[in-house]
Input
Amino acid sequence: DAKTTQPTSMDCAEGRAANLPCNHSTISGNEYVYWYRQIHSQGPQYIIHGLKNNETNEMASLIITEDRKSSTLILPHATLRDTAVYYCIVRGVRSGNTPLVFGKGTRLSVIA
Amino acid sequence: SQTIHQWPATLVQPVGSPLSLECTVEGTSNPNLYWYRQAAGRGLQLLFYSVGIGQISSEVPQNLSASRPQDRQFILSSKKLLLSDSGFYLCAWDTDLLGNTIYFGEGSWLTVV
Output
């Protein structure tokens, strides 16, 4: 079972920041927070991941609370192409024994 | 750079026919390999994963099987397909590195009729 909780769906106006929350209250000290997104009929795409510190890349920013029990993915200027299902996943540092388990994710709709 | 390929991209198979989906990874060695399935309108379900040649872990009991005959090759098979096997099948890989990231193939659409 997935160890994260996300809202089922969200809307965001084009050009505005999209803030997608995720709760992972049972995260352990050696688990990372990963974000992926899946655009219809495509394989999931990696966005960003982090352990404790906030992270930023060309796609998004990841804000992790100090107690690590929740995080927020921020798409700074959402476009119509960002419409997708966004998955928040926690995972241990050694992948072989901890396969990536997807929950239901958040369906983000970017509206013109 | 590393790449992952899976094929065929699309297939339509009759009930009771066999299935073989193939996945290969290039540009890395000893990857962990995964098969996921996504039924229409549903989430991603992990089917099998493998940490090495001949090592297969099954997550969901079903009429599907997986094999890893070579380090970078992962095959999903069935002897007799069911209607419920229809869906979007995804192969993925990663490595046992700190903070590793998993990468997905393009996917294979299977329709069982």
Notes: The interface with chain B takes residues 32, 34, 38, 41-46, 49, 51, 87, 93-97, 99-105 of chain A (CB under 8 Å). The radius of gyration of chain A is 13 Å. DSSP finds no helices and nine strands in chain A.
